[in-house]
Amino acid sequence: MVLEMKVPSPGESITEVEIAEWLVEDGDYVEKDQAIAEVDSDKATLELPAEESGVITLKAEVGDAVAVGEVVCLIDTSAEKPEGSSGSSDKKEESKKEEPKKEAPKKEESKKETYASGTPSPAAKKILDEKGIEPSSVSGSGKDGRITKDDAVKAKPSMGTPTGGSRGESRSKLSMLRRKVAERLVAAKNETAMLTTFNEVDMSAIFELRKQYKEEFKEKHGVSLGFMSFFTKAVIRALQMYPAVNSMIDGKEMITYEFCDISIAVSGPKGLMVPVIRNAENLSFRGIESEVKRLAIRAREGEITVDEMTGGTFTITNGGVFGSMLSTPIINPPQSGILGMHNIVERAIVRDGAIAIAPVMYVALSYDHRIIDGKESVGFLVAVKEALESPEDLLMDGNVKKALEL
Question: Would you say the pTM of this structure is higher than 0.70?
């Protein structure tokens, strides 16, 4: 029996995928549930498992865009597993060993040198003169090495390499995910009235809390007490104070959400992923840290699903892990706001009328000015700053141990 394997739907609204890589070769024997291909959608990279065991026949090439429901390969389930075979990888190794050595190609006979060698035709000379290119720098493809008009058209002027450095270049096709990200970023810039407001946060209070409780927190809950839980809590508080920031435009209407689904930007093997912490307003510090860890691991291992990245009412991105001091993050459409975290650096600040050294982070809020006014955007960011500088009072209700479930 020959089984037709069709492209399954990776998620709602996705109509096609792209074959990113075949993990097996045509004619291989594959086992049921073995990963046979990686496919890119416009939201994630997913593995395609074999539906049955048998010999596979590929029906699509790497880079092909394939519609959901279209046949990508055939599996002959009646074929018997080859004796001594433990998978396609063994077959590949054997084929490499058995592959005969190819004879080195014979050198082409040198072209006959004549008076025409390196001499441009009248039309070619005119083009080279206009480009400012010396004929001696052009290799002629005409009879006896004569420089043709086509050679002159293709010739490029030297950019100058006084150090003799390499001038090589390479091309590679953008994945469907990367192309979609590019489209969304351009759309966010072109279709929203995006502005960014900045502030600075004295992180001293959070540093003290983490120094005092991080070991006990990790020992009890199995996750670290990081900065993300404090920032998520501060953002949720600010969203509840300024609900317009937790809104988005739908045609001529504004949708305001009563829940906080917080998207967190994570760097994955295929680029930036933005998984979502659902109903973050109901989670404790432990719950947020556990969910951040779970989603980050899944994203970095390429296991994140489309459903886990769909939705979100507000995004937090942390460029500080890469050393960024300040940036203007781009809105994650159709959301209306994104908070950018940055690196923490000891800076001189004024505290109680005196100069002091403190760990300071610059924060940035990019927002859609079509539905969020300046007063709301600035008020939102100030609310985030206040909560981060007074976490015990504003995020923990004055009881640190209870908030951390210690």
Answer: no
